[in-house]
Amino acid sequence: MKHIDIRDIMENGAYVGQEATVCGWVRTARDSKNMAFLALNDGTTLNHLQIVVDKATLEMPVAATHLGSALKVVGTVVPAMNGGGVEINAVSIEVLGDCPADYPLQKKFQKLETLREIPHIRVRTNTFNAVLRIRSIMAAALHRYFQENHYTYINTPLLTGSDCEGAGEVFQVTTIGYNTEYKNAEEYYANDFFGKRAGLSVSGQLEGEVAAMGLGKIYTFGPSFRAENSNTPRHVAEFWHIEPEVAFAELPDIIEIAEDMIKYVIRDVMEKCPDELAFFEQRFEKGLREKLQSVVDNDFAIVDYTTAIDQLKASGVKFEYPVEWGLDLQTEHERYITEEIYKKPVFLTNYPKDIKAFYMKQNPDGKTVAATDLLVPGVGEIIGCSEREADYDKLVSAMEARGMNLDDYKDYLDLRKFGSVPHSGFGLGFERIIMYVTGMSNIRDVILYPRTVGNIR
Fold first, then answer.
1. Least crowded by CB within 10 Å, which of 236, 276, 289, 358?
2. pLDDT tens sequence across 170-179
3. What is the dihedral of CA 273, 276, 281, 283, to 10 degrees?
4. pLDDT tops 70 at residue 245
5. HSE value, Cβ hemisphere, 13 Å, CA-based, for 120
């Protein structure tokens, strides 16, 4: 169906005085005896295009004023009578799809919790129209950043026989399903499709390291799955993951890369999505654009885990969760560090080895690992990062201490036998960085279909 995007009509002055065809959904409608005014949106822009109907010259279909109806409009593009911009004086209107009175978006404002119950419809609201467009811009910026810096894009397997994080939060994949005829788990898995236990990947890191050992610098960008029984505002069971792996890079190198990448993406969003950011600042986070500009203009803080623990203890704040050296930080701790102490993004480094993954490089002190989390105000952790353990014996020791089956990681261990090099990488939770950039406070509101405990449709 030949038509012009509403965004092009609104941004290209060459269309003024010309006849144009547009398509879209009715967002608002005002109808009177002689005139009607329809606000049309086709998803290419946050802004609506006003369609002016002179009833003396055009017999308008009744369904054209129904909220949510899909229309094809032909008319002349003219300067808007009020507020600048352009509008269309309609000469013909075709209803492509009527929308009945039980359309769920009749109210002007609806709670985000209510909209989560209709994920297939909520995309038509201004909020989710803006969220998903920013998501698209950010995805393109991430790919462009890595491509411009000579990384190779790698597609890692979604089906895996190992648990990268070692936390046991893997969704099982099977072709057998519930069955009582097998005597034990070993027999069950031996008869399954792969002949062994398999699951959905929690991370592409292990395979990413394989690729980096031949290509030097790689990145992955795809879904990860974690069967974590969590209902927090920043956890979903299926999320998108950006994971670069860089050979010949130590922890300070990968921290520099992560900061550069974050600033690159934010600059791109600020340049390409000014209307969307203004919308989010008005509705969800006051001072959003100033916050993002500050991120771009200033260095991130780099703070040792031990220092952060001391600062939290000295704060005098009564936290819900205890603060002790050796314990993992909770969201309330992470946000206090970024929002109250440093007031900007913080790389927290050198975590206790017992609370971090087996693959992280062990520091000379024997107690900590060369790891860092990037914490940001309003969200908490958005990046988990580390230098990888390149020493075969130390890696095996860490795995044995955790009771891991070395046979499941033979390929990974081989990397430490054949030309091992210092290398580092990180995982960026895509939805979390979207939350930070938009000011949205719940991860369920920055993804098309959130997958959470007890919720899949």
1. 289
2. 999 999 988 8
3. -170
4. yes
5. 3
